[in-house]
Fold this sequence. Notes:
This protein is an alpha+beta fold. Helices cover 19% and strands 24% of the residues. The strands form three sheets. The chain has a seven-stranded antiparallel β-sheet. The protein has a two-stranded antiparallel ribbon with strand order 8-9. Strands 10-11 form a two-stranded antiparallel sheet. Residues 219-249 are annotated as: Disordered. It comes from Gekko japonicus.
Amino acid sequence: MVDRLANSEANTRRISIVENCFGAAGQPLTIPGRVLIGEGVLTKLCRKKPKARQFFLFNDILVYGNIVIQKKKYNKQHIIPLENVTIESIQDEGELRNGWLIKTPTKSFAVYAATATEKSEWMNHINKCVSDLISKSGKTPSNEHAAVWVPDSEATVCMRCQKAKFTPVNRRHHCRKCGFVVCGPCSEKRFLLPSQSSKPVRICDFCYDLLSTGEMPTCQPMRSDSYSRSPKPPLNDISDDDDDDDSSD
């Protein structure tokens, strides 16, 4: 099916429309063999709060961006190679339902669909695309992934020292290794995590000590793969002043 669509005029036209919606700031998406599988709006759990994002699933990449005008204009384009993607279902909690994790070596985050059926369709299609890519390339599926950041709202005090209260002056930071929300004094050190950045990134003292002694691999997140939204310190990752998407998220 995908192979038949690869060189069809309808597929070329659909991809061209997506490119036009992102405008000149977006990356070109039309390449030989690429097929647009589907698209839709998903709620992405950002650092500050959940936000609607437009997602496009191709047979080799996942693209998403901010919605400026629905079906007409998007910005802040992000492109994720599917061969590095692992997905994992997460339990419903409160208003956040029908969700799953999208995990990659550079960034991991949670998204939520409007219905259980939509969630199932997204996950099935993503898994199929990833499976086909790995099968064709002969590569081993990547076990490496960044941690998912704990949202700011889930931590009123530092998740490491459990003492420092966050205020407009005492700002929140995120450890890039475990994803905890931590205070400045608990995250003054930096460490090179090659899968996330070519420069040393902010990490908490706890992770720094483990990484420095070789007790923790640089390519794996500290916590387990399961995502918990409870206030107890689950471990995860991203950037500090930036959100998982951008500084405005």
